[in-house]
Write a structure and sequence with these properties.
single chain; alpha/beta; eight-stranded parallel β-barrel; two-stranded antiparallel sheet
Length: 270
């Protein structure tokens, strides 16, 4: 089992703190969603051509590796489609330079009724274009299950369009699919299973105020143990990555508490 943690959960840590704490926790992977306040890949000083070698040496010295970069790119809005495609291409180039194997993208939202089919087609074609750019660069493009792209009906049409590209994959955020499928995750899982490359682990309370309130891993309603066991039994060999949304929800517990609790929870499956 391979564990990683998204830097979304430690927005106030320096790069040194990230390296020291991740190494001490015994996780292998750093999923990058910003470093020292910079969320755009070409704005992170450690990822420049000048600092690349030193950065990678520091990461390797701690027994760690970068395993993915999370962009904010989404493809549902026609007016912003090209700018998001362009931003993804920049991310792909930076990740190629840094040896980061995957770029995360979003769908992200799909209306009900009028415009639904057109939106899903736009998302699929946008992701396909980015995948074609990434195909020969050693970088994968992972569509995260997020927003309203979290049902079989919304994910399957996108897969149909983009999955012909070898760089295409799925990042299963189990919290977002739980909002629609709950405990009955089997059909959804079978839809994404052939393309599954990465998994976000988090937990929430379904009937809460506000709805789907984020809580510590293992303290909510998501059937995490069943999902994790099923993935392992099926031979999933990608990362299980904690996405502790501290940057967006500052009221959440500090990473010094949340990260060790996650590692402890995952020990049951090791």
């Amino acid at each position: 089992m391979k564990l990683s943690i998204s830097t979304l959960g430690c927005p106030d840590w320096t790069f040194d703190q990230i390296l020291d704490n991740y190494a001490a926790l015994g996780v292998e992977g750093i999923e990058v969603r910003g470093i020292e306040g910079n969320v755009e890949p070409d704005k992170i000083p450690y990822f420049t051509e000048e600092q690349k070698d030193e950065t990678l040496a520091r990461v390797a010295a701690k027994g760690l590796k970068f395993i993915g970069f999370g962009t904010s790119a989404s493809f549902h809005d026609a007016a912003k489609l090209q700018s998001n495609i362009d931003a993804c291409k920049v991310a792909v180039d930076v990740c190629q330079r840094m040896g980061i194997p995957a770029v995360r993208v979003f769908g992200n939202n799909c209306p009900e009724g009028e415009g639904r089919e057109e939106t899903l087609k736009r998302i699929g074609e946008g992701i396909r274009e980015v995948c074609r750019y990434a195909n020969d660069k050693g970088v994968r493009i992972n569509l995260e299950i997020h927003g309203t792209i979290n049902t079989v009906d919304t994910v399957a049409p996108i897969i149909e369009i983009a999955s012909s590209e070898p760089s295409f994959g799925i990042l299963w955020d189990v919290q977002h699919s739980d909002k629609t499928v709950g405990d009955d995750f089997e059909e959804f899982y079978q839809t994404v299973k052939p393309y599954l490359r990465h998994v976000h682990i988090k937990d929430h309370l379904r009937a809460s105020e506000p709805p789907f309130k984020l809580v510590a891993v293992g303290e909510g309603d998501i059937p995490l143990k069943k999902i994790i066991r099923r993935l392992l039994d099926d031979g999933y060999d990608g990362y299980f990555s904690l996405e502790w949304e501290k940057k967006w929800h500052p009221e959440l517990a500090e990473p010094e508490a949340a990260f060790p609790a996650y590692v402890e929870f995952m020990k049951e499956f090791m």
